[in-house]
Design goal:
It contains four helices and nine strands. By secondary structure, the chain is of the alpha+beta class. The two termini are about 25 Å apart.
């Protein structure tokens, strides 16, 4: 059965630093789709973050690349299997050089925290109680 995938393409300033950051979060790199211009970060079987150096990223768009440390274009949200896993991933990101972004959101049935990666891209990690999702 075909599973649709998502490839999130992100411009980065320092590819080696970004690769180190994401591997410190526990993600792996796919060398088949990585070179001096790009790194393929495997987040799950169906989610891949493509980290592209800015000159290479600019070959895919005619638009100006925003400075994600001062402007926001996208908020990348990832699910987590528990509240503890939310905290674990965000704490790893901060320890690896990321910065907290906003305050934790606790709605009882849903819990989330955000961090900005080394280039200012905001990642939201959320947990939702499966019973609340079902109905």
């Amino acid at each position: 059965m075909y599973q649709q995938m998502i490839f999130v393409n992100l411009p980065v300033s320092d590819l080696d630093a970004s690769k180190k950051f994401f591997t410190e979060l526990g993600y792996s790199l796919n060398p088949q789709f990585s070179d001096e211009n790009a790194a393929s970060v495997v987040i799950s079987d169906t989610i891949v973050a493509m980290l592209l150096v800015k000159p290479f990223y600019s070959t895919f768009t005619k638009k100006e690349i925003v400075d994600a440390t001062t402007s926001s274009e996208v908020l990348i949200a990832l699910s987590a299997e528990s509240r503890e896993k939310v905290d674990e991933l965000v704490d790893k990101a901060i320890a690896a050089g990321g910065t907290p972004s906003g305050e934790p959101q606790d709605h009882g049935f849903m819990y989330g925290r955000n961090f900005d990666d080394l280039d200012g891209h905001t990642w939201e990690v959320i947990w939702m109680d499966p019973a609340a999702v079902e109905g």
